[in-house]
Predict the structure.
Amino acid sequence: MFRKTARLLASLILLAATSAQAAPEQYQLDTARSEVGFGFTLQGATVEGVMPVKRADMRIDLDNVPASSVDVTLNARNASAGVFFVTQTMKGPQVLDTAQHPEIRFRSTRFNGDLNGATVTGDLTIRGVTRPVTLTAGLYRQRGTQAGDRSQLSVLLTGKISRSAFGAGGFPGFVEDPIDLRILARIQK
């Protein structure tokens, strides 16, 4: 009887320790319902565009947000800025140079905060130039899910980057330097 009780107690302690030190969980990106958006000012007018995600590795720890990590690669060659000549110029050698640099990559280096508000800092590589950036992150349950359901989430990342800091400063008399980022990622376990 003592042995059974001791084994049961040891199993419960091991289970509690495993739960208390849960590791980040792998989430898959729903590419059909996710959107990497950007905006810039062209001769005083706001231009908005989108860029598809090529691949994403997202490991999220909802109980310990700083333990999370993301690694996302975008397909710059398939970026669109709405108007054909603007899109072609953006992908050309003076801006993104997608012929030589077909991908844009972001790898997180640090998460700060919690589920009520967080920032994610990471290394962003554009045109072969890597610079640190910090984005504001929000995490939400997807519409139609039950309270407490963590299997389907929406992640909203927002921020600004300097295109010239990445060597993408072509046409400075026409296009302003800051680029607004708005990334809506729908993820599921």
